[in-house]
Prior knowledge:
The complex is a heterodimer of chains A (234) and B (336).
Chain A: E1 4-13, E2 16-26, E3 31-35, H1 42-50, E4 55-62, E5 65-66, H2 72-78, E6 80-83, H3 95-102, H4 110-120, H5 122-126, H6 137-149, E7 155-159, H7 167-182, E8 186-190, H8 194-200, E9 203-208, E10 211-217, H9 218-223, H10 225-231
Chain B: H1 2-39, H2 46-66, H3 77-105, H4 110-132, E1 145-147, H5 149-156, E2 164-165, H6 166-188, H7 190-200, H8 202-207, H9 212-238, H10 242-259, H11 264-282, H12 286-292, H13 311-325
Antiparallel strand pairs in B: 1-2
Helix pairs in contact in B: 1-6, 1-9, 1-10, 1-11, 1-12, 2-3, 2-4, 2-9, 2-10, 3-4, 3-9, 6-7, 6-9, 7-9, 10-11, 10-13, 11-13
Amino acid sequence: MYLLFGENITCGYGSVDILFNCDVGVNEGEISSIVGPNGAGKSTAMKALFGLLPIKQGKIILDGEDITNIPPQQRVLKGMGFVPQTNNIFPSLTVEENLEMGAFVEQHDCKKMLEYIYELFPVLKDKQYQLAGELSGGQRQQVAVGRALMTKPKVLMLDEPSAGVSPIIMEGLFNKVTEIANQGTAVLMVEQNAKQALKISNLGFVLNQGKNLFTDTGNSLLENKEVRQAFLGG
Amino acid sequence: MDFLNGITLISNYILIPGLTYGSQLALGALGITIVYSVLRFSNFAHGEFMSFGAMTSILLCWLFLSLEINLNPLPTAIIVLPFAIIITIFYCILVDKIIFKFYRRQNSKSVINLIVSIGVMFFTGGLIRFIIGPGDKNFFDGERFILKAKTFKNYTGLSEGLALKTTQGITIVLSIILVVLLFWFLNKTKTGKSMRAYADNKELALLSGINPEKVVFITWIITGTLACVAGTLYGLDKSYKPFTYLHLVLPIFSAAIVGGVGNPIGAIIGGFVIAFSELIVTFAYKKIFFYFLPNYLVPDGLLQILSTDYKIAISFIILVLVLLIRPTGIYKGKII
């Protein structure tokens, strides 16, 4: 039983469908990756799960509850955190204000969560009064992830967290993702760097042309010859 | 002695009027900048909103005076100001609900909203002239001067006088209070921060659960307050005439753009840049040369760079120059 499950989803933009009867999901405290070539519908699947796109068919289940028809803001309250691929920070707000905005809907233990995030990303503590727009790409991603974590989500959704950051930073970021999952927050992410993503994932979903091609554990997918040849470059 | 006389002359004719006029422009430019950054359009109706605020103050002043409530030696306008602010806010929100909301729902482009705001400007201007008439209204009462030129002369023994009008004092003090409050609100309160977040990245603000309608509501509260105070202060200082507010839109927009649109600090600095430029360019320097230069070097003419009739052109020239040379303004704002 998945914690967050998009079951049999068909959706797209306007009359053009991108996803066809697609299944994606993540278990409690685990990491799932959605991988696939460009135009496979990875980001579309993310948007559909978060309610940013209307769904034509299928349903989305969070913790046993059908959330197909509720707006994104309320999904945040239900325990979903989303980090978009681009424009995922408030550039003219300070790092701390960015994080505070993440906890806008519930303030109960804002201070505690801030401490937790500064522990997770120590560099943000040093830069807490700096404008987020002045940070480097990797630091911005940390702010973005931190902002989404402020509501203590059950599921954290990351759309291409490694886009635009250097390989070294990317590795650090993936380590943090593992750490977040170990602390009990399930992570569902879309990644271009399929190999590295699958390495740390419990489950992998390989999409192609909007359809599920393979679904297996991260390691089995890495060893699967067909997947390697078609999507992981040998 | 000549040196001190010269300094007094500059203070009396440039420094104090510049600070007063600059504060009025800064408050107006702040209103424009805030609407621009949160609602994403240039609100040309802002000048008329200021006029509306001033008109409300005048009507309330008449009412209060007929009830024999006053604040001597301070002008009655000070007591009525809070009520006038509430009425102006109410008008702004009404206009938003009836007009701007419709275009917001449709996700209209910023230029469509701009044209709509011009419509609102003409409507509001008409409404104001319909209610109070197009003529000059002077609603200043109470003590005229905080410091009279004559008192200053007697006290210091200088031949030049320095006067501080009550309206000038009130304008500067009220502007400082309002700006401090505004910055405190924007930087320290949760609602203010959410407003800045919404202005910064609308989509992410929605994802964070910030309620857009509430942000819009608060934006109009702030805009209405700024417009009413700026309009009333301007009317108090220079007497109220509905048409002058139509011309006031230009220097206010120049101030906002010179400072960097979308940046509140820029709007304040822009306000003073425009105000001082207008005064410096239209000031007759003959007397200053008289004090600072030996007599045989003082020229015969008035030494005025431009006649005061061209005052409005100066803000226009500055606007054009800024747009040509540095379109982002002094502080990097958004490029229009």
